[in-house]
Amino acid sequence: MTYHRLDPKRTAVLFFDMLNAYYRGADSATQGRMAPVVANCVRLMVAARGAGIPIFYAKADHRPDLADSVTLVTDTDQHLQPWPDPEHPRRFSPSARQGTWEGEVIQEISPQPGDYMIPKHRWSAFHQTHLELSLRTRGIDTIVLAGGSTDVGVASTAYSARDRDFNVVIVQDACIATQMDNHQQLMARIFPRMARVRTTDQVLEMMGTTLTPRPLPCEGRGDL
């Protein structure tokens, strides 16, 4: 391991919840905010494939009946809005469910044969999944992490990776959050204590690949 370089044999790229539900199924404003993030994820994917770096996709995989979802006692909902009746908070209702279009990885970074799919039921991509086993069996000790949300699944996965003694590189312009001030605080003040925080350009340099052009994401839900 070196600080400025990534060893392709010991590195994996992990895309977190880059799913139709959160991009093509979102409103136009959200799609506009996410477009540059998607473009950077495409660049990471192309570079990783060119360098022989394995790609992992962590994806929400909730039961259609949401029997694997629970109601927790919290101050606010996912958008930081206080509950109208705190004694009866609304059950978290994830939109990415098994066997649905919403639960599939976006076409721009479609999985290929040989890639790793990591179905998950909680925020961390490590929680009761085969992610750690699959990384260890390939001798991987470094994870390049991208996707969203920064302050939810990305943060939870980064903490879990750190506790399992993995090196983590978090790609700041290939991650996104609903509250971007949370994204900025994590990138500036939290993640540097457990990881290397880099831009997409910097990660491509660390991979030793030629910088790839920034592709424009496909437009229109019908493309997927």
| SSE run | EHEEHEHEHEH
Number of helices: 5
How many whole angstroms does the radius of gyration measure?
A: 17 Å
Principal-axis shape = globular
Kindly report the spatial arrangement of strands forming the biggest sheet.
3-2-1-4-5-6
Number of folding domains?
A: 1
| Arithmetic mean of pLDDT | 88
Which stretches of 5+ consecutive residues score pLDDT under 50? 216-224
In CATH, the topology is named Rossmann fold
- Major pleated sheet: 6 strands, parallel
Structural class: alpha/beta
**Per CATH, which architecture?**
3-Layer(aba) Sandwich
Assembly annotation: single chain
| N-to-C CA distance | 38 Å
**Got a strand count?**
6
Which band does the percent of strand residues land in? 15-25%
Query: Can you say what the CATH homologous superfamily is?
Result: Isochorismatase-like
CATH class: Alpha Beta
Considering DSSP H and I runs of 4 or more, what fraction of the residues is helical?
Answer: 25-40%
Blueprint of the fold:
Blueprint (H helix, E strand, L loop, with lengths): L10 E6 L11 H24 L3 E6 L55 E5 L10 H7 L4 E7 L1 H14 L3 E10 L3 H11 L5 E3 L1 H8 L17
Parallel strand pairs: 1-2, 1-4, 2-3, 4-5, 5-6
